[in-house]
Design a protein that fits this description.
single chain; alpha/beta; Spo0b-associated Gtp-binding Protein, Chain: A; Rossmann fold; GMP Synthetase, Chain A, domain 3; 3 domains; six-stranded mixed sheet; 18 strands; 21% helix; elongated; GTP-bd
Amino acid sequence: MFVDVAKIYVKAGDGGHGAVSFRREKYVPFGGPDGGDGGKGGDVIFVVDKGLRTLLDFRYKKKYIAMSGENGGTNNKFGKDGEDLVIKVPPGTVIKDAETNRIIADLKDESDVAVVARGGRGGRGNTKFATPTRQAPNFAEPGMPGEERWIVLELKLLADVGLVGFPNVGKSTILSMVTGAKPKIANYHFTTLTPNLGVVDLPGVKSFVLADIPGIIEGAHEGAGLGIDFLRHIERTRVLIHVIDVSGIEGRDPIEDFYQINEELKLYNEKLSKKPQIVAANKMDIPGAEENFERLKAEMDKHGIKVFKISAATNQGLKELMQYVGQVLENVPYDEEPLGEFYIPEDKKFTYIIKRADDGAFEITGSFVDRLLLSVNIYDSESLKYFHKVLERKGIIEELKQMGIKDGDIVRMNDFEFEFVE
């Protein structure tokens, strides 16, 4: 089974919480703080594995979660960092953010690596909050949450040459004759339901990868037939072999076929119609093909396109065609043009919102509040002083004043309420 698109959920590990701990030594009755920091959460990392050819594994497993960092311990013991989650994908995999459809990474080579979700930072233990005036902090910092997102994986085959054309024109037969590939072949439309790859390795020809792309029909750029699902695989190729049935046995005109296929390529991506093309006039062994060939060749001469007489069924002309393709490839550079502007996910921002509740209280909500309250011990005066300083540094106190807060007004943060005092 060939799978070339998959949507999955990835989540990096959360950071471990910092510890609240104090030394309890036999002859040190008032030991200081010794709570250690939490460990960092593991990242979600994508790497290329040249042994993979499809995204099939991602059809059955949709969620990938990295390990969280361990919490800090006593005696200033740091929590262990969470292990990174390394996910292997085939070469040619494009990773997109599912929400924005923007490209995060384009993994083509074995050395390509992409960190798609970063692990959360570990929280600081109470040791880090000790100061000359705060010698026994009874609070610590929680770990930061790991990044999470839905992503779309798209596989674009990394072939040097693509065989394109209408269904049933002989592309699969050509592939089977010039490579070791054994595609399914039959005399009906859409025999090829998935792209097939093979390596052309002939005497006097520098080896190259040849892809048999499923047949294209009118409206393919809008999804007709096998459509867009497989047009994307042509984007990576350097040269196109346009296979045309010159026998006319199915009632189509070879010249019209050429223009119709090229129109579909252009409508999908104009860059495809500008790739070097070589026309393979197939089924020359069928009576009546010669007349159509002469017409086709005269038309292609107008565009400077080389035309080869071939018969995939009898192996006629295939060696000469592949030798010429090998020569053309030597002068066609690899396509290093980026697929678009790459999207680098930003670090998660902790935000808040202040609004007046129906009872007149000032309500503060948001991810910033959730995280701050995790680190506050409301029964400890030192912790409450730290809490107040954080609110000042964040600008919340000033914002409350601008909203008209007065002494005695209630401030509500989730389930925690306090009176405002200037």
